Prior knowledge:
17% strand; alpha+beta; 12 helices; eight-stranded mixed β-sheet
Amino acid sequence: MSAAGLSPRQLAGRVGVSGKTVERWLSDGRLIPHARNREDAAKVLGVDSTMLWPKAVRDALKIGPDREIIRSYPYRSACPSTVWGDLIKNARTDLLFAGYTNYFLWLEQPNLVESLRRKAEAGCRVRFLLGDPDGEVTRQREAIEDVALTVSTRIRITLENLAKLRDVTGVEARYSAADDATNHVGLSVFRFDSQALVTPHLARVVGHDSPMMHLRRQQEDGMFGRFAAHAEELWDRGRPC
């Protein structure tokens, strides 16, 4: 008899499956019903489905390195601007914007200059790693993208906004080294303390059309750590703007 005083056949009738199916559920703990059947059975018995099939919960949980992936987006533009805003707002110690142009931030985040000013004044380190607007890789990328708003123009828009923060201690900007430019243009890393947004750039599309991952540090030498180390390496070899 079940916890609700029902026989397997009675429970089967209420859930809408055969009696033999319920008997298999009860006799073989390795079998996990479909989610709808689990919920229907738990409702009939008056218990939580996780009490009946805890393995289903364990199987659904991320327990390996992929647990650092909070969410993935097929396009960077599919990520709500509020996600970026909240990450910037909640950062306390380290903001690193290591996109090649970082241009879109000034369009999508209201009053970003003042937000970054307040962050820096509160003790948060704010860094921008940019591509050299006059570099060879920048010219090559412009030819590949072939769009009216060129890569160098987008970089210079970021530089214009950063110029408004020159008097703020804690705000830094660098160009990636010429030898690193190819690695930089192909991968954008945006760090917010222990979280990051990472965009690997597809061959011939602009950044907002490339996929993106939202990561949170959960372990040493995990996905977050490896991307963060990549950005730090480029930063260390960079030169002041």
